[in-house]
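Q: Is it fine to ask for two folds in a single conversation?
A: Yes, each is treated on its own. Send the first.
Q: Here.
A: Result:
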Amino acid sequence: MKGQETRNFQSEVKELLHLMIHSLYSNKEIFLRELISNASDAADKLRFRALSMPDLYEGNGNLCVTILINKEKRTLTISDNGIGMNREEIIENLGTIAKSGTKAFIKSMDSKAIKDNNLIGQFGVGFYSAFIVANKVTVLSRAAGTLPEEGVFWESTGTGEYTLADIEKKERGTAITLHLRENEDSFLDIWNVRNIVSKYSDHIALPVKIAVNDEKKKTINWEKINKAQALWTRNKAEIKDEEYKEFYKNIYHDSNDPLIWSHNRVEGKQEYTSLLYIPAQAPLNMWNRDNSHGLKLYVNRVFIMDDVELFMPNYLRFIRGLIDSNDLPLNISRETIQDNRITQNLRTSLTKRSLQMLEKLAKYDIEKYSKFWTEFGIVLKEGPAEDHINQQEIAKLLRFASTHNKESTQDVSLNDYLSRMVQGQDKIYYISADSYAAAKSSPHLELFYKKGIEVLLLSDRIDEWMMSYLTNFDGKTFQLVSKFDESINKLSDKETQDHKDTEKLFEPFIKRIKTLLDNRVKEVRLTYRLIDTPCIVSTDTNEITTQMAKLFTAVGQEVPNVKYIFEINPDHLLVKRIMNIQDEEHFAEWINLLLEEALLVERGTLDDPNLFIRRINQLLMI
């Protein structure tokens, strides 16, 4: 070969290539994405330059990428008929690690048209990813508009130097041949290569063709293996619902239609397209907060990665779809997105778009939203704690069971609740328990049932944690009815003077109970919220609640013992009888029994259930 010479790389290539091969990329197959991206980039450059110099097409304007597998020689060749490179450009672009020809090309252009063009490959080291699977890489290239004998040969084993030579190349463009390592046979499998191209480069606008041998005719056919048109880049008005559904099913391998989707293109300081879906069914590991997210990231239609976490908060991890950005900055490997201002702006926009999509579903299709809530409601309940900015919007989407309905279905919105508030009611009342049945039958609700005041019934494990962050809605504060609050007593029909008279009458009785129980309870008080129950326990305003204590215990955190307020119903017949018992031992048995009953109702368990049973049996025999 003429003009052959050996050169050293202009950087610490041994160390950098070693880093790339063993550390930079998380999976090997992305080298094919990188090389196809570079080929697409070369085609875009040619199209732009040919606007002013049509002769650059050399009579062939059908741009494409071709892939040729040679199993005998163990080679994989990716070729394009794009802009190509001359000797100087080869040295400049392939002789230095992290040198991006595309980036330099854009920088050299003054025209706004080229800066707005959809060019791929502004990331610097894509070409060198070939060494992940190849122990030698050969490049043949000729710049468009040059003579055939001005082709350039480049070859390197990635060990610190490369070889250059002049060759004759009839077609313009670049052909990159990878001499595969011994353990990379999967890249000699035509079906595996097809799948990789379909996965990563299906929506590149440049056709990708692969050579298929026709054994009968002894010929080679070039079959197109990518769609070469991204659905999300088309006009929404031209896309049918069935196309959206099929696209979703294909990329997520889901047999169910999505519940709803949102397709939007944003232009301005930031340019991106988003296509978001809400699935009809939750995956089995959805409840794990470490579950992978459903967003895919594309840059100018090139697939970059799955499970993008930075663009969507964790409580919306069920959202599937993609974002295709024109100007998103990426790190050297394309595998990690830089957490910067642009990323945060995209996250904010996509979060709002997702919440709007849910709001639309809740407003116009109650049946579908009910299905969504059944599948993903618990995940959405993480929202009020994670996203203070959108807390009220999330609250509108929450659904609850309540005393208004006779079933456990969570279908009551907070707006529904507000519309049914009784005159003079200034709080949103709720109760949390281990189950719907326990919540619905709680003695804490007796006065509310009597007064016709609706109470939200919370029984999911996450509810108590959610409500510790969701303190108000539409100007109304939330009130847990199992927490002591004097305003609840004021809901009773008794006048203030009646309360004072009752408290004076029961003062010795209350004092007697306090002496007996000592520090087992925080306080002993009369209550006017009970109708059929002799007593209850409640937590003080600043005390940890029973359900929150259970939640902490479930995740292995130590919590202090909850000190309850023991509330006595002065109107209950049993209380009045116990008040007249003179025998201290007999009196103590009854008071302990009432306290244990109240604790059992509140906590669902007792420290010593056998003692409780013996106490009941003993009192039954008296």
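Q: Second one now.
A: Result:
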Amino acid sequence: MLQRNPEPFARTEVAPSTAMSPADVIASFARLSRRRAGIIVLIFACCVVCGAVYLYVAPPKYLAHASLIIDTRKTQLFQQQQVLADTPVDSATVDSQIEVLKSETIAAAVVKELHLTTDPEFVGSKPGLFGTIISFLFPSAPASETDLEQRAQETFHAGLFPRRVGTTYVIEIGFLSRSPERAAVVANATAEAYILDQLEAKYEATRRAGIWLQERIHELQQQAATAERAVLDFKKANNIVDTGGRLINEQQLAELNSQIVLARAATAEARARLNRISEITRNDIAELDSVIKAPDPAVADALRSDVINKLRSEYLEAANKEAVYSARLGKDHLVVINLRNQMFEIRKSIFDELKRIEETFKSDYQIAIAREQSIQQSLAEAVAQNQVANQAQIALKDLDSKAQTFRAIHDNFVQRYMEAIQQQSFPYTEARVISSAVRPTKKSLPNSVLVMTLAAASGLLLAFGVAILIDLSEGGFRTSEQVEGELGTTCLAIVPVFKADARPFRAIEARPDAANLRQLERTGVLFGVVGTPFSRFAEAFRTIKVSIDLIALAKPSKVIGITSTNPGEGKSTVAANLARLIAHAGGSAILLDCDLRNPSLTRSLAPHAEWGLLDVISGKRQLADVIWSDPATSLSFVPMVAKMRLSHTNEILASAAMRKLIEELRKSYQYVLVDLPPLTPVVDVRSTSQIVDTYLFVIEWGRTAIDAAKSALSSAPLVSDSLLGIVLNKANLDLVRNYSYSGGYRYSDRDLKNYGFED
């Protein structure tokens, strides 16, 4: 149901297109498949046939696999450190071993081991039909042994497929061959060649290390001997004698240090005894009583003398008697006095003996001092000599350190050399075979399923690619959505191709009688929308008329100009059929041929007209004299008759006389349809904005370039602003449905017949 809008067919701004949904993409490819079914099926079939032909002519090939592992748990036969440290096994190391498997060394070893230079598969001509033809047409001279080896190695590399298994240390060696037995043999030989190459590499490296070690040992031995001789010569030159691991001057200095300590202790002891004796002898004899009864520890050695001990015993005995007699007889008794005198004499004798001992202690003290001074002097001399010896000792230590270093390096290199000699005969490598290749039971190449899948997929991609390129190369308008999206205006109708022959009008009276009307019917005057009123062609023009009537409700649209981008797009046919439809429906309509330079409408409808539009504008004829009338529809037609070529046609269309004529027609007719020239070649249409209310723009389906239509409308802004809409002319409706996104053309013939359509 139609709804009225304020400006039903005004130019609309088209919103930016959003991303297509998956359903839209699938629908788009489905439409592409329908409209390009022929080319798609052809290309797809060709690709599938090519795949089948390849499977038929390609020789089968078999792939055998052998597996080896880079063992990280190495068994050490010898406990000593290896001469050549092994590289830690990591991901990069495993990848490096794969490159080793692809090396020329492995290829040459396998070719030599299996005598592949005599195998036709490795050194023969290329297999297949093309290889045979080339060998027959271009025979070559026999190849040399070097060429055969090179060719065999190239074939070996082409069939070798080593790869790492996941993230493990396992390397899978695959070989592709036309013979299953040969594939297994070459795969196993490659694994063995790799292991032998690793052993050979280790042996060669160890051998080279042994040679270098031997040379280095000889040099180190000479350097160590030279350094040791330098040590001996230096000791001899500096009188350095080593005794028990210590030098003589060092030992003498240590002994003197010990002696000086002992001498100082002896001197201190002698001085202490002398001082105590001297302190006793400086006192009075009467004070010896306390010393005798309780001797001082400092003079204990002196009291140990036999003389003093005897006198001390006598003195103590007399003292005891004196005490006893003094208590029994009294202090003044003669016996007591005699005993006291005896005790005095004994003390005097002890005092004299102490004096003698004091002299002895004094002599010992002097001897101790002299001995200490002697040792001190010897120590000073030894220190002076030791300072000189220390300077020599520094140089001696440097020489001795060099000698020991050279000797240690020499001994270490000798040990490493012995290890290298032992490892040369130790057959061990990190790689070992864990799975030998066996004869494959089925071919690996060509993979029939994969080849046919790729052929089918390639065929589909190529077919759709070509179809898309064809669509892009066409570059014309195909659907109403495309028209509205590109030009920003309404597509009023899609007019299908009308193949019936048009018949010209007949010049008749204004009111033809029945006999003349029947004569026109017999001669085929009725055609197009009148001759086929139940066709989709006629229905399209009904749609245009409805649009004109609706826009007339919003703004004046009595005078309608029909134009196009380029000549030949069918604007005159659209104008004639639209005018006939309006007149046949009972509307008062007149059609003017205003294409002053190329009046094609006049040539089709009134080829024998002698007077026309120019005569009315110039005043030579009245309007009634030039009007041709269609008895079947009561349509009036004003032809365009020019006796000569016109140069200023735009001035004629913009003249006051033309405006006056249009104003007269507005008063007499409901619809004034003006067939205008196209926009691109001439400027006449731009001069009609004062006489035309609205324009109908005709575009040929699938032919008019999008850029050309845009350029034409942008060059005539007055026409673009007054545009009623677009008519997509000469459309193939069977193909339109394959271009349309809206699905408005997805109807069947049965649906058309239900609504009275007869085409």
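Q: Anything structural to flag on that second result?
A: Two points. The two ends are 25 Å apart (CA to CA). The chain is about 60% helix and 10% strand.
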